[in-house]
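Follow-up to my earlier ticket, as requested here are the two runs.
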Amino acid sequence: MMNDDPLSLAQTAFAALADLAFACALGALLLNGWLSREQAFAPVSPARDGWRRAARGGLFAALALALCNFVSLWLQSAAMSGAPVLAAGASLWLVATGTHAGVGWSVALAGSVLLLFATSGAALSNSRIGLAVAGALIVAAGKSAIGHAADAGAFSFAEGVQTLHLLATAVWGGIVVAGAFVLPALDSSVARAFLIRTVARMSQAASTALVLVILTGAFNAWRGVGGSLAALTASVWGHVLLVKIALVALALAFGALNRWSALPRLQRSASTMDAHTVINVMRIEALTMAGVFVAAAVLSHSVPGSALGG
């Protein structure tokens, strides 16, 4: 089970914050891209406030991601050296370059710095989009090298699946969480068309990401329980996995409500009431997704259920 000492709890907390910040950065970048394509950055655009929220939100999330990854590397140094947290800087370089976990956190930190550069500036350019894609891949690869997938070896199939899972989850959750922050700025009659088109794009992208989340998540879960469903009820890891699955199912329900009910009504009526419904449902879904990221962080810092079998 997961250690309950303060250092372990701090590592789990910052891992969860990093996952949430990663998702928000990707979600905000996507929203920035969609709104930039419609020239929403123009001073006369009624969607300018929404574009500005996406741009600023992405920058803030990328900065938070870089800080969380650095703190996680620092805490990893303290855990491995046995030094007090405030004195862990003395072994930081050695841990970052000479240990598997340290290298993984360093790679994730490097990717978050690239995302920070990608979110800096005004409307997205092709070069910044490329930088964002590279940064996202590097962050996900670094994180997958730290978790349980690394048990299968470096550059293994399991690590590749986990990298894809982290990316897909970040895109799905990021679209929802960032959308809950950005969409209220499009909640006016003059920006209603932008809101409808943006929500439709969000729904399509989230649905694609969700397919990958389910496929890769099923593989990771089966690998984590060692092929035995008994581990779901016989281990703390299994209990947390069940909580995560329940939260994912709840988020799916809210997402389906928006995609199949609230959004079609909004597209037909373009009314303020239906716009409020879409945004409020997304806010609830965003809170649920935050719980998913917390559960994922706890899972990554817990002993897998497959360990019960020796």
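Run two:
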Amino acid sequence: MSPRSLFWIPVILRLLLVAMTMGLGWYWWGSTAGFVIGFIAVLGLALIQLQYLYQLSLWLENPDQIKLVDGFGAWTDIFARLYKLRREDQKNRNDLAEWLSRFRQAMSLLPDGVVIMDDVLFLEWCNPLAEKHLRLNLDRDKGMRVTNLIRSPEFIDYIILGKYEKPLSMTLGERKLIIHLIPFEQSRQILVTHDVTDTDRLDQTRRDFIANASHELRTPLTVINGFLEIAAMQPDLDLETRKQHLDLMVDQGKRMQNLVEDMLSLTRLEAIDHPVRPEPVKVAMLLQQIQRDSIALSGGRHEISLSMDGPDLLGSSDELHSAFANLVTNAVRYTPNGGKIDIIWEKHAEGPRFIVRDDGIGIRPEHITRLTERFYRVDKGRSRETQGTGLGLAIVKHVLIRHEAQLTIESEVGKGSSFIVQFPVTAVLAVNH
């Protein structure tokens, strides 16, 4: 049966019922009584329809809170259809909400920032990474023009000129960003931000490393090549001068060898992408060997003491030997003749500590934070005298990072320095177990 029939048949039946009621009243009580009965019946039907219309009006204003009555006649079908449409609408809204939630979750996991704007650049939505990159706040900034939120001349020029085929490279705060605007649909635009700060810093570090390494290698090679040219041009050079030249070439060759070895060690440490393979480290034996080596390096020019009251560790013996030896070697190189160097391994509430303390020349405060940078020199002239490569403390830093240890440097110019390595308590617990 068609919907039109379902509507009109109950209406016609009700009208027939009213007519029959009027006829019966007319027949039994006269015309006046028939009209009154018919009027009351029609009025009753009208009141019922108005009540249903009122219920429908209330429901339309707040369909989530008010429930429709079942009704009768044509209203039953109307209410049933409304309920069906309401269920379908609720299902569509739930599906849309779930899709939107998944979309936002997916956008939040992207490695890039995403901003959605309308055709006049008003902010509609952005993911957390875009908030971080562009210093936005979705709750606060939604509905505002993006060019009013990002007050960068180069960004505004990029937006106004409309040359979006080429991304914009810009610096915002401490971040370097690559920004690309992508128009889509007829009234939407997507702004994508990619943070290249770390990549740019890494590229700069590599360039600096190559430049510094080239500079450091150039000096010994120049010395060696110079003396070889002299030897080639003056084959009858006296033995004493020739011996001096050979000694200098040997020294420069050793310096170049040490530099290459340190660069290889540092490169190897930086390339390791897996944690330390733990092994028991006999710290007492390791430090005794380092003390003997440092005494040999000092050649009797310093007083070098060793104090041990700490436990063994769990870590890489070779890496820890390299870090500890670099710290002690630096103390020997930068402490004047007659100075004292203390090597200390002690227990502490926060975990065991390794300390190298000297009474040498000390370090000015502005240099301390940069000492672990590659090739950083406090005094370039003195570094050449001490034959340092400028990579020792960089190696120390990477070894300690791999062992979850921290380096603290305390120093006072003219009174000496202390290099303190703090290991976590867990390193000792691992050994004890």
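The only thing I checked on run two: The mean pLDDT is 81. Let me know what else you need.
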